[in-house]
Amino acid sequence: MRAPSHLTALLGLLMVACGGAGDATGAAQSAGAAQPAAEPEAEPEKVGYDLRRLRPANDEPLVKTFERMHAQARAEGKQIAMLFSAEWCERCRRLELELGNLHPAGDIAHVRILELVEEDWEQALRMNELELLRQRWDVTKGTYPLFVVLDDEGRKIEEMKEAVDRLEHAGQEATVATWFRGLRAS
Fold first, then answer.
1. Residue 26 falls inside a structural domain
2. Do the beta carbons of residue 83 and residue 146 sit within 8 Å?
3. pLDDT 10s digits, 88-123
4. What is the CATH number of the domain that holds 160?
């Protein structure tokens, strides 16, 4: 039994409209639609600085707190930077603004900053502990900020002022993120 001609015509139109066989244009459009359009490159994930403020706690000496937190960070694969600052210090406040920014994770996420703020230790009458720890990396008293990157054993690799001079000499932007990104490469 043959289908009536109007049914055959209707089936033919449906085949063409749906990109069926015999329609080169429909087949090409279907093939093009099957391939996803190239997506623009995704922005790298941005994160904040891994900053831990060390405050007097219980009776644990600051040196023990530092050693514990250094070991924990190393176990997590983090490099340590020590930041000594004070609330009265204008340069410290500007640095704090930078440390509130987001950057690509690949630039800064591998560094943990341990911060000691003078006033926290002064109020607890434990400034001698802060000064003793600080003297591991700089014997100058009362100059802020002191911001140093440490090696696995806790020895100074580079201080921020040294990093700024080095980066500027190399024609690079002298920022904390640039400094930290360079640590990953070395």
1. no
2. yes
3. 999 999 999 999 999 999 999 999 999 999 999 999
4. 3.40.30.10
Q: Is residue 164 part of a domain?
A: yes
How far, in Å, CA of 40 to CA of 79, rounded?
33
Planar angle of CA 93, 64, 124, nearest 5 degrees: 55
Within a domain: 27 = no
pLDDT of 34: 56
**Count of domains observed in the chain:** 1
The neighbour count for residue 38, using CB atoms within 10 Å, is 6
81: its two tokens: 């930077």
In-domain check, residue 154: yes
**Kind of pairing, strands 102-104 and 156-159?**
unpaired
Residues 6+ apart with CB under 8 A from 86: 92, 117, 118, 119, 144
